[in-house]
Specification:
single chain; about 1000 residues; alpha+beta; 4-stranded parallel sheet
Length: about 1000
């Protein structure tokens, strides 16, 4: 805009004026604590205020990590949506809790600390300052009193406290819950009482009682029951980084996401959480929450509940002190009816029996050439072949092992097991398509009826035996591919049991009963879900509030000593090793501070001051994000992680179950609306649900679920560009050239690049900072644009040119309120005509429905349409304009506040009452009737809304277009007054 134009319209709504208005209102909101939500109890107790307000509402976003790059325009999408929803409900008179904190422990800050020597706290706090500024500038209505970060000592004191509560608990599968179901967590002290009284046996091999056990033996018994325990577990060990990685930090190529180092599967002593005890509840209770079905499906698939049987296959130990002794390979199968068809077995490379099954000498008689491995240099003996194969397998991720296609790899262990139903000796292989993390880490392979087993048998020349056929007559049919459909059992009989002729379900039932009676198997339920690996060999995380005595027994750090804080360390990086040194072991940074690791403590148990060694691993960043929503409810409380009354008020059960829940379902309570990306829809939600259910079982929270309603937002996408190597280049630096044929080509630094669409973000180098949007258009225009891009749940393309449309809408509305030349208010107390009155009340009704359903794009379309109608008038009616401003306020709060004040209202718009539609003022004088001829629209006519069928028929048949289209007469006329008439010519 030129200076002369600005001189003529000094009060025009420009980016400069938008910035002035927005900053002023943000300051006022902060000074007046506009969005502070009163609590019924605790340090912020305002029970009178709570009573004055309407129903409560908790609206939260997923916990953000304060990145050094700051926000890009994709981040605010969910934040704006939750803010619009919160502001709307605040205008309905509700007590709305809307807050945001920071998930501030994390690997990026630690990586930076390793590179620079700068403490990760300093980096993280600087990043939070940037993010706070960007979020404040967006005008989000957070209760800032409730903001915290997981690195705050007062916060992670309670993270450690909750960890100890879970550690000090066990899962009693027989305990009756409030809902009548069986199985819940109980304090470990209650288990000790039952052991002391003899009500429960410690289960020692020699049958000794609790009183006969030493203190160390008692501790070992309790460890077998605790919900948190230490175990030798297969982990992703990365020697090049010196740390264990989560599955999410390992690429499909079996390398570290950071640094691209080899990652190996190793068994290491790690802290584990017994999440598997809650597998059934975590799956079943999804029926009671209001979540997208695809997210529920993702959770159920991750839990992976399946019914089947465990069967033991006898095998002879081949080496070591126990050589010649009988051992058993236990498998889990969902198809026990096919056991007669098992012609080989496969163990995961990490299976503990592998070493015992590999003989010291050469290959046994009957070994097929294909079984010994592909490399002549490594297949000279079973030991060499198995060792080489296990090394190669340890470099692959679980994902890669499961998705490599039909080219199966493996090697014979040198041992044969016995099929307990046929008595046949069957070879035992090691192959990486079997995972230690599912079932027992071993499978009976039935190639005739499993595609993976068929591919393996084909590659390794192993017999294939049909045991299921479409009909009994098909018993002798050749097997050319795996038959996985339903059918009847064939070739499945011995002297003791016969399945022949039975359906699959009948055969399962009979064989499970026989296996149980024979003592070689039993029916069971299996889960894909494994216990949760909870250790990290890193510095920047919550220290475990645990220490070990000289016997290696874990003890809780006394509660009075919490929080256990991180010491300064000489080096933030764990000790690294040769990237290919798979035999190395972790040495975390905390192990280098002996004065912190070794402590003298009196536990008050009568044994005086003793020496203890602190845990040197730290918790994963999941720990802080498992319960943060609870701390929002009561962050100033130093006596409890949340006051029980505050938790009941904010997260307690609703009177009615969620829509679509099975009959009899009790409402679980939890956060009323939780918005976040689907990338966190499995692990974060699953882990938070687990912690919450333990807290519920222990009586520490009343709600059974953390998040009653979850909404999965889509992404904002933008063009990204890759060079000839496939590497992303900065999108902002790419130049476009339009050729003579109007086709575009793209270059970066003179070299051609390829354009694609991708999720906007740092990794694709296509980020756009919201700071650019604030400067160029203002925060309100940015908010309106993001909410108008399309349905919130869908991914949408970022198009900077389209932002202008949102800006023009706000400018037109501003002009309807404020004279751009004088600054005077333009509206007048004039009664709108009936057409505008009808449109107003229809818009109010529609916008209310859209805001409730998170359909902000359609709400804005209705507001734009109404504003366009007002713009055509010489004098805007106050009644319509004020309703427009009120309805816009949740989306564009700054300009709405400013217009509301200029319209003469005090007290701000945030608590002003949202307009209510009056159906009696909606008068449809005419409606549009669509005229179809043979089903195709050929005409439209305006008619009275109460027109009769006969009158409408006559009117339509007399229309010029209808007469022209029916020269031979009319066969039939279908009338749906007043909206539709369909004419079928003769």
């Amino acid at each position: 805009m030129s200076d002369s134009t600005h001189d003529e319209t000094p009060f025009r709504y420009t980016p400069a004026l938008a910035q002035q208005v927005e900053l002023a209102w943000q300051d006022r909101w902060e000074q007046e604590q506009t969005f502070a939500a009163p609590n019924p109890a605790g340090p912020w107790a305002e029970p009178d205020k709570v009573a004055q307000l309407g129903r409560k509402l908790v609206v939260l976003d997923m916990f953000p990590y304060p990145s050094g790059a700051g926000l890009h325009v994709g981040h605010p999408l969910g934040y704006i949506a939750s803010d619009v929803y919160s502001r709307y409900h605040r205008m309905l008179g509700k007590n709305v809790l809307h807050a945001l904190g920071y998930d501030a422990f994390g690997l990026p800050a630690e990586q930076y600390a390793v590179q620079t020597g700068q403490h990760p706290r300093k980096t993280t706090e600087e990043n939070m300052v940037t993010m706070r500024r960007q979020l404040r500038r967006l005008g989000l209505g957070f209760d800032d009193r409730r903001t915290f970060a997981t690195i705050d000592e007062d916060y992670y004191r309670w993270t450690q406290w909750i960890f100890l509560k879970i550690w000090d608990s066990w899962y009693d599968v027989d305990a009756v819950r409030d809902d009548g179901g069986r199985g819940r967590a109980r304090p470990i002290a209650e288990l000790v009482a039952e052991l002391e009284s003899g009500q429960r046996s410690p289960g020692t091999p020699d049958g000794r009682s609790w009183a006969e056990l030493s203190s160390v033996e008692r501790a070992r018994v309790l460890e077998r029951h605790r919900l948190v325990y230490r175990s030798e577990a297969p982990v992703n060990w990365c020697p090049g980084l010196g740390t264990v990685l989560s599955n999410e930090e390992v690429t499909n190529d079996g390398r570290s996401e950071r640094g691209n180092y080899p990652v190996f599967k190793r068994n290491l002593a790690q802290w584990m959480m017994r999440i598997t005890a809650y597998a059934d509840r975590l799956a079943d209770d999804l029926d009671g929450v209001d979540w997208p079905e695809n997210v529920k499906r993702l959770q159920r698939n991750w839990i992976g509940r399946s019914q089947g049987a465990r069967i033991t296959f006898p095998v002879t130990v081949a080496t070591g002190e126990r050589a010649g002794e009988q051992e058993g390979i236990e498998v889990f199968t969902t198809r026990p009816d096919t056991v007669f068809g098992a012609t080989f077995m496969v163990l995961a490379p990490e299976h503990p029996l592998v070493d015992a099954l590999v003989p010291d000498g050469g290959w046994p008689e009957g070994t097929h050439d294909a079984w010994t491995g592909a490399d002549n240099a490594t297949r000279s003996t079973p030991k060499d072949a198995v060792a080489a194969y296990r090394r190669a397998a340890s470099r692959k991720s679980d994902v890669e092992r499961q998705t490599e296609g039909k080219d199966k790899t493996g090697v014979f262990t040198g041992s044969f097991a016995t099929n307990p139903l046929t008595g046949e000796a069957i070879p035992v292989f090691v192959a990486d398509y079997v995972l230690m993390g599912y079932g027992t880490g071993a499978i009976m392979a039935v190639p005739a009826h499993d595609e993976r087993d068929f591919d393996y048998a084909t590659a390794f020349s192993i017999p294939v035996r049909r045991v299921v056929a479409p009909t009994a007559e098909g018993a002798g049919d050749p097997v050319t591919e795996a038959f996985t459909a339903s059918g009847v059992a064939v070739n499945s009989a011995n002297d003791e049991v016969s399945l022949d002729g039975l359906t699959v379900d009948e055969a399962k039932e009979r064989i499970i009963a026989w296996l149980d009676g024979a003592g070689i198997g039993h029916g069971t339920v299996n889960y894909r879900l494994r216990d949760w690996l909870f250790s990290r060999q890193r510095y920047w995380g919550e220290p475990f509030p645990v220490m070990f005595d000289d016997d290696g027994i874990a003890h809780a750090v006394p509660e009075s000593q919490l929080p256990l804080t991180l010491p300064d360390v000489p080096d933030y990086s764990p000790k690294t090793f040769d990237p290919d040194d798979a035999t190395s072991s972790p040495e975390p940074p905390l192990s280098r501070v002996p004065e912190w690791v070794n402590v003298e403590v009196d536990l008050g148990d009568g044994r005086g001051v003793r020496h203890f060694r602190r845990e040197t691993n730290t918790m994963p960043n999941w720990a802080g994000s498992c319960w943060y929503y609870l701390r929002y409810l009561d962050p100033a409380n130093h006596d409890a992680f949340v006051d029980p009354e505050n938790e009941r008020y904010w997260l307690g059960r609703h009177e009615d179950a969620v829509a679509g829940a099975p009959a009899g379902t009790v409402d679980p309570g939890g956060v009323d609306l939780y918005i976040g990306g689907v990338e966190h829809a499995v692990l974060h939600l699953l882990y938070a649900r687990f912690w919450h259910k333990v807290l519920h079982d222990l009586g520490l929270v009343s709600s059974e679920e953390p998040f009653r309603t979850y909404f999965s937002q889509g992404y904002i996408q933008a063009h990204a560009y890759t060079d000839a190597r496939g590497q992303y280049v900065p999108a902002a630096e790419v130049e476009e050239q339009v050729g003579d044929d109007a086709a575009s080509t793209y270059t970066w630094q003179g070299d051609p690049v390829t354009r694609e669409y991708g999720k906007i973000g740092k990794s694709l180098k296509n980020s756009v900072s919201p700071d650019e949007m604030y400067d160029a258009y203002g925060a309100d225009t940015f908010r309106v644009y993001e909410m108008s891009m399309g349905p919130l749940e869908l991914s949408k393309p970022w198009e900077i040119r389209a932002v202008v449309g949102s800006q023009r809408f706000l400018q037109r509305l501003w002009r309807n309120v404020v004279d751009e030349r004088t600054g005077e208010v333009r509206v007048a107390d004039e009664t709108p005509d009936q057409a505008l009155t009808t449109q107003l009340h229809q818009t109010i009704a529609g916008v209310r429905e859209d805001y409730e359903g998170l359909r902000f794009n359609t709400a804005l379309a209705k507001l734009i349409e109404l504003n366009n109608a007002v713009t055509k008038l010489d004098v805007p009616p106050r009644e319509v304009v004020e309703a427009l401003v009120l309805m816009l306020a949740p989306v564009a709060p700054h300009v709405a506040e400013e217009m509301w004040q200029r319209l003469g209202h005090e007290g701000g718009i945030s608590r002003a009452a949202f307009p209510v539609s009056d159906p009696s003022r909606i008068v449809l004088e005419q409606v549009t009737c669509v005229v179809q001829i043979k089903g195709k629209v050929r005409d439209r006519v305006e008619v009275a809304p109460d027109i009769g069928e006969d009158e409408l028929r006559e009117l339509v048949l007399a229309r010029e277009k209808v007469v022209a289209a029916t020269p031979d007469g009319v066969r039939t006329v279908i009338v749906r007054a007043p909206r539709l008439v369909n004419v079928v010519p003769a």
